[in-house]
């Protein structure tokens, strides 16, 4: 902000609730009457009739392009070409984060706006200005900052709550929780963090979101499993889908990311099998207690987060991802952090290395024993 950089605050229109899909057609027709629908093939059969009905009732014609795989150049190019050949005046993305990111970038290539219809709360991709790109083979590339954020987000809770695996919701909760510990790290230790009204607001909003999810995350996953929409569940869905995107935007273009999201990039680059086997939020969550430890957070705060992660069924350390602590693995990790964050002083690198036991093995109890995923303690020779 101080240097005149653009601050783009996510989608301008956000609908959330049971039945809000009825707004899709009315918002779409504001952009045009020919829409390319980038539809996640895995969920499209479940939602097709309702999505098309809303568009048709507002006089919007459609061409369906089924998405599978990754948000990658091949998919983006194919979707954009299909839309241009059809003469599409807007793009509607329907599905999970990778389908929505593909829709956003394809719309950018076509010079039109996108509307997103998320079918889970696993990430803030529905509202975020950025999209995460991969190669055609699925290797992580980085963030693509599109010219415009989504025009509107239609968060239909009949899809997100009543017809979505709990694992996706849990991953979204954890990814949203990561913003506060990472922003806290940057405020304390990063010279890239610019102190201004936007970034200070991002800090306050991320703290409020963290406390909300820490308190209600576990109870709401049970409500989601039961298909029961409650005020607490609605708030948590909103936090994962929209508020997290606002936090990211107010933090001035990704400067909120710290250790946990940098390690997510490490997993994608060095261990692509982890990116294939775990959700984004699960990989971020596996290092979130470590992030708190590096921040210097009190042990009670680390344990509170650890309890929530376990209750949500999330991995809490690298060992639970299947990564063993070896000198080679540790050297690769800390070299990656030093390069990508970046780490600029030996003292900062030592702080990261000093909590490596938490990174690889998780928290210990008062007797010095590590906690297993079942909450039981076991002896370790480390």
UniProtKB/TrEMBL annotation:
Q: Which UniProt keywords apply?
A: Metal-binding, NAD, Oxidoreductase, Zinc
Q: Which InterPro entries match?
A: ADH_Fe/GldA, Glycerol_DH
What does this protein's record comment on cofactor binding?
Answer: Binds 1 zinc ion per subunit.
Task: Please tell me which top-level EC class this enzyme sits in.
Answer: oxidoreductase
Give the catalytic activity: glycerol + NAD(+) = dihydroxyacetone + NADH + H(+)
Q: Where does NAD(+) bind?
A: 40, 97-101, 130, 134
Every Alcohol dehydrogenase iron-type/glycerol dehydrogenase GldA domain range: 13-138
Report whether Translocase shows up as a keyword of the record: no
Q: Name one GO molecular function term.
A: glycerol dehydrogenase (NAD+) activity
Could you say which EC number(s) this protein's record lists? 1.1.1.6
Task: Identify the pathway.
Answer: Polyol metabolism; glycerol fermentation; glycerone phosphate from glycerol (oxidative route): step 1/2
Q: What cofactor does its activity depend on?
A: Zn(2+)
For the ligand (glycerol), the binding residues are 175, 261, 280
Q: State what protein this is by name.
A: Glycerol dehydrogenase
């Amino acid at each position: 902000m101080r240097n005149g950089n653009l601050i783009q605050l996510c989608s301008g229109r956000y609908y959330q609730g049971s039945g809000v899909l009825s707004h899709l057609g009315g918002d779409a027709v504001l952009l045009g009457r020919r829409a390319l629908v980038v539809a996640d093939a895995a969920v499209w059969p479940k939602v097709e009739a309702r999505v098309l009905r809303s568009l048709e009732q507002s006089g919007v014609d459609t061409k369906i392009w089924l998405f599978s795989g990754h948000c990658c150049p091949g998919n983006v190019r194919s979707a954009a070409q299909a839309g241009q050949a059809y003469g599409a005046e807007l793009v509607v993305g329907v599905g999970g984060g990778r389908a929505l990111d593909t829709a956003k970038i394809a719309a950018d290539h076509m010079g039109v706006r996108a509307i997103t219809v998320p079918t889970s709360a696993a990430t803030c991709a529905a509202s975020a200005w950025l999209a995460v790109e991969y190669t055609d083979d699925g290797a992580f590339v980085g963030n693509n900052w599109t010219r415009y954020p989504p025009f509107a987000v239609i968060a239909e809770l009949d899809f997100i709550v009543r017809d979505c695996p709990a694992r996706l919701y849990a991953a979204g909760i954890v990814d949203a929780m990561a913003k506060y510990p990472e922003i806290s790290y940057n405020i304390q230790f990063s010279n890239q963090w610019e102190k201004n009204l936007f970034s200070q607001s991002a800090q306050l909003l991320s703290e409020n979101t963290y406390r909300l999810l820490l308190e209600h995350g576990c109870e709401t996953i049970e409500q989601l499993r039961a298909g029961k929409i409650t005020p607490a569940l609605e708030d948590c869905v909103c936090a994962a889908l929209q508020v997290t995107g606002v936090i990211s935007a107010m933090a001035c273009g990704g400067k909120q990311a710290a250790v946990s999201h940098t390690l997510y990039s490490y997993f994608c680059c060095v261990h692509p099998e982890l990116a294939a086997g775990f959700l984004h939020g699960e990989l971020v969550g596996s290092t979130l207690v470590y992030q708190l430890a590096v921040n210097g957070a009190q042990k009670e705060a680390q344990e509170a987060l650890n309890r929530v992660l376990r209750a949500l069924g999330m991995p809490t350390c690298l060992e639970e991802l299947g990564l063993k602590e070896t000198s080679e693995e540790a050297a690769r990790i800390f070299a990656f952090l030093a390069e990508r964050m970046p780490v600029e002083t030996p003292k900062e690198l030592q702080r990261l290395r000093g909590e490596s036991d938490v990174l690889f093995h998780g928290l210990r109890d008062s007797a010095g024993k590590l906690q297993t995923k079942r909450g039981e303690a076991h002896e370790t020779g480390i």
